[in-house]
Design a protein that fits this description.
Elements lengths: L2 H21 L2 H27 L6 H26 L7 H28 L2 H42 L2
Length: 165
């Protein structure tokens, strides 16, 4: 084996070790704690607001409250899932969080566009649709990046497995 191949062989475990250390670091865990707290607290606050409102809330308001609670609970459940696992996720958590973000963004954007179409002017509709498109594009970019990162980590893992007898 040439010196260059030996150096490349040593580089794979080192790169994988660095990547996995970032995934299970205290900083990463604290980010997930913050996401879980934000989602759970947001859902709880909206649930309390909904529970203390008069019973005569319009159906669309109740649907909005239910949707926002569901989004908050999704983030809290996601964070709980990540924090309870004791092994590297190989960026699976990033892919899942990007899907949650994309879903929440699309639902929110479509709801806003529907509301603007029914109640707003053409300018309101245009502004809402443009904002929704920008945020949806950003969420889609996050999903593409997350899937790419996961693919990279899996390739590193597979390369390491090939090197191990």
């Amino acid at each position: 084996m040439s010196e260059q191949n030996r150096a490349a062989h040593r580089a794979v475990p080192e790169r994988l070790e660095r990547a996995l250390a970032m995934e299970v670091s205290l900083r990463s865990r604290l980010r997930h704690v913050a996401v879980g707290l934000a989602g759970g607290c947001g859902a709880a606050m909206i649930a309390v607001l909904w529970a203390t409102e008069p019973n005569a809330l319009p159906a669309r308001t109740q649907a909005a409250f239910a949707g926002l609670i569901a989004i908050g609970l999704a983030w809290a459940a996601f964070a709980g899932w990540v924090l309870t696992l004791r092994r590297p996720l190989f960026a699976r958590d990033r892919v899942l969080s990007a899907w949650i973000a994309l879903t929440a963004t699309v639902v929110t954007a479509l709801s806003g566009v529907a509301l603007a179409a029914v109640r707003g002017s053409t300018a309101d509709l245009t502004a809402t649709a443009a904002g929704g498109a920008v945020f949806t594009a950003a969420a889609m970019c996050a999903l593409v990046r997350a899937r790419h990162r996961r693919h990279e980590l899996l390739q590193l893992r597979d390369a390491l497995r090939q090197d191990t007898p």
